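Task: complex structure prediction.
Instruction: return structure tokens for all chains below.
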Amino acid sequence: MAKTYDKAIATEIISSYGAKPELLVQILHAFVDRYSYISETAVRQIADELNLSRADVHGVVSFYHDFRTRPPGRHVVRICQAESCQAMGSRELTAHAERSLGVELNNTTADGEITLEPVYCLGNCACSPAMMVDRRVYGRVDNEKFDRLVKMRGH
Amino acid sequence: MAGRVKIFVPRETAALSMGADEVVAEMLAQGRLHGRDIELVRNGSWGMSWLEPLAEVIVNGERVAYGPVAADDVASLFQADFLSGGQHPLKMGATSAIPYLEKQDRWTFRRCGLIDPLSIEEYRGNGGFAGLEKAFELGAAGVLQELKASGLRGRGGAGFPTGIKWQTVADAAGEQKYIACNADEGDSGTFSDRMLMEGDPLTLIEGMLIAGFAVGANRGYVYLRSEYPLARTVFLKALAVARESGWLGKNIQGSGFDFDIDLHLGAGSYVCGEETAMLESLEGKAGLIRYKPPLPAIAGLFGKPTVVNNVVTLASVPEILVRGSEAYAALGTGRSKGTLAFQLAGNIRRGGLVEIAFGLTLRELIEDWGGGTFSGRDIRAVQIGGPLGAYFPQHLLDTPLDYEAFAALDGLIGHGGVVVFDDSVNMAAQARFAMEFCALESCGKCTPCRIGSVRGVEVIDRIVANENRDANLELLQELCDTMVDGSLCAMGGLTPFPVRSAVKYFPKDFEGSSAVQASAGVNK
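Output:
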């Protein structure tokens, strides 16, 4: 569960990586793990403490898909869009997910419960189509299995 | 009451994705109910993903397999006394005799599935660290000699001779050198890096140790994609286990050799699988690719001479040293020596990992191991080598699995991923996706890739909408030429290959009503 931003704790996270600029990608991961996204405040503080410009940090944040700049829903559902899953109907599964959640990919349901995202390969290609709910991967996901797994999360 | 029995159920992503944890919970519950004392071993996967979750028990000293087991099957397995090898519809017989496994030639993956991935004792007991000991015995020059003689080529996709790369780093001037392991396995249809890191991570550590010893590096990095959280957990534990037992750190096993490894996470960027983009990312920056030269072997991580190798490449080294380069080079065909861990994916009945010598045909792999499509319909196209690999039609399925034979057909063996599509696939949609993916994942450094891919999507849309067809088809070919000739790395340079193969072998999909659906990304 994401925590409220705390400057002292943010400093602790940064120092646990020795405040080394070459560990910026790892530091940003640690921020996402704790706060679920990278806020403007975080960019400022990280830049200050690593002695980088805000543009440097912003450049890295915006390059990588993992570094969200807005908080996601309580759960993140990622459906694989890559070839192996396409061969097993991921396009249809995605359309079903969008219909049943009432949101398109890269959006969060109105109640803030679920963020639906694309992902390009989870390495579960022998059991396509694959989906990840928070940190857990599911294989051979059909519409019925999708509904069941997403309902388990109170939606 | 019977004695303690061992049950093996993998802790591996594919097995977990099909419910392995639920199966384990149910087995423990049923065990209590039947008053059986059960020890559950969470092994890696044998790679028979179609049988996951695969449960094994030991009967008369032999592992006997049941699969695919669902939590609902567990009660009936106990009723059938599967702990003693009882008959049951899910019984597959002795694991080692399952043809899918028995017909393989396992070198790199020989312990994967067999052992508890985090047990140094089991690793040692099954030949682990014998490769490193051999390396110490041969000396650095001897290791390089063996590796060159083995003919091992980079398994990440580029197929560069590993021994020559290592020799270059060994010969490069400088005190500080690095081993950078590429575990950014982003190609759809591939999972061998993940399977090894989850199922036998100590082999990767051993391979990196040998690389460090051979080239004179004392520091290694593993760059792992963030989409693999379990591989991360297992590998971090493996590093800890290796350090505790003196196989990592200072003066390893009294040899005087120091080496340690850090794990770094990628952050969802496909292009970071390109070696120079990976090095940038390892340095904490955006994954923009670098110009070459200089080669990473001369000026790589932090500007120092660096061995950049894929997981499977590094993990192949220990067994090559143990069994000898001659035995390895005797396998395979032409300049494709040894074995490759192919991965069967997509619309395939028996998906999984198959480590075999090069030279078999693609059809044999797909039919004999894969058992045809999952849907039961006809195979229409097969994409080999990930999103940058060509789509092969039926008539090319008899191509032998060999780097050069594939290159001659504008194809790619790459990282060994084989993605099968049945006859419902719309190849114009697949061609469009190749360009779309390139546009999404381009690092943006060079124009042919950054802009060419966007234009590619637009041109394909116009072709399928029947706008100026002939002129636009010609334009697409020219655009592909520009991307191939003008891109800085394989991202823009190889994206045209799946596109061109789709146009060449499946021209009908770019015409008429079937084509219209492609622009919406819908299959027939």
